[in-house]
Amino acid sequence: MKLERVEIVHVAIPLVTPFRTSFGTMTTKDTFLLHLVTDVAEGWSEFAADPEPLYCSEFVAGAEIVLRDFLIPRMAALPHLTTAVLADALAGIKGHELAKAALETALLDAELRSYGMPLATYLGAVRDRVPAGVSVGIKDSIPELLDDVERYLAEGYVRIKLKIEPGWDVGPVRAVRDRFGDALPLQVDANTAYTLADAEQLRRLDEFGLLLIEEPLEENNLHAHALLQQRLRTPVCLDESLHHARDTAAAIALDACRVVNVKPARVGGYLEARRVHDVARAHGVPVWCGGMLETGVGRAPNLALAALPGCTLPGDTSASARYFAEDITEPFVLVDGHLPVPDGPGIGIAPLPDALRRFTRERRDLYAA
Ligand code: OSB
Ligand code: MG
After folding, report:
1. Is 241 in the pocket of ligand 1 (CB under 6 A)?
2. Would you say the pTM of this structure is higher than 0.90?
3. What is the pLDDT confidence band of residue 209, given thresholds at 50, 70 and 90?
4. What whole-number percentage of the chain has pLDDT above 90?
5. Looking at residue 88, which CATH number applies to its domain?
6. How far is the CA of 235 from the centre of ligand 2 (A)?
7. Is any ligand 1 atom within 6 A of the Cβ of residue 242?
8. Three-state SS for 25?
């Protein structure tokens, strides 16, 4: 393939309700799409991070510069453009996994479309639909939380994840267990809000039979997570701390991580996400696909990953309506608690031109041959 054009499309889509975590509150999905044009096919992808570096160090304005000045020039210099050689060509640029993932995914979409293969087939998916979990933000009160959980369960979600932080942990978990019972698949996500000094408080969660506690301690501190795991029955799951298959292997070897949250963006793309999955599966460690409040452009490829054999827990792969009154693609709709795995070529979806136009704030060419 020959690279002809890379266009960046900044979009802003209002969320149906504010989403609060231990690191901040979001009211709009404000990010960019990449539209990559080659001589044989086109591809789309979505940048997963936000305008501010609160979840991770990358952010929208910074990623545009990294793509324009460092990543795309290396891509454009490749004599034969394929995803097989892209990651190596970008490896000299340190970090910036989310920006690299956006570029690789747009190319992968174009490449797979050029020979008519769905991403799910390429990755080795074993399911044509995947169970949907939902991530429930921090609320102002327990009654408000219970109302939200009740609504999501009525919609069919098969697993609930509660965002927690110091002061909002045991109380909400107990209230949800009391109201909805011990059989409800339930897990929590702290987004790095605790320290080892909080181990006793986190141990109080053990009595609720949670599937996992996600990223309780500071990012990248595998040692502290291993020490915490020694004191908890609840399995520790890592999100922010896992950046590739190598550190996933290290975290598993250290017993810092008994469950893996794989976000393709966080690990530099779907090819590395597949390797993260493979490492975890080889160790018998359950994997699930995380989310970043993606529009349909980001959600579609996540569903393909969630259909891999090692993804044995429901992901944060919820329906479009969980976040958006109107999505930028055909919406993903929950059927019997599941979402369909896209079966069209590439990521199997593209923005709807009219919705894209209305949600677009700016578009620019980052590269034109
Ligand atoms: O930690 O998993 C996370 C959203 C934004 C940033 C980080 C996280 C999340 C979520 C929601 O928990 C995932 C989703 O529903 O897309
Ligand atoms: Mg998380």
Report:
1. no
2. yes
3. very high
4. 100
5. 3.30.390.10
6. 14
7. no
8. strand
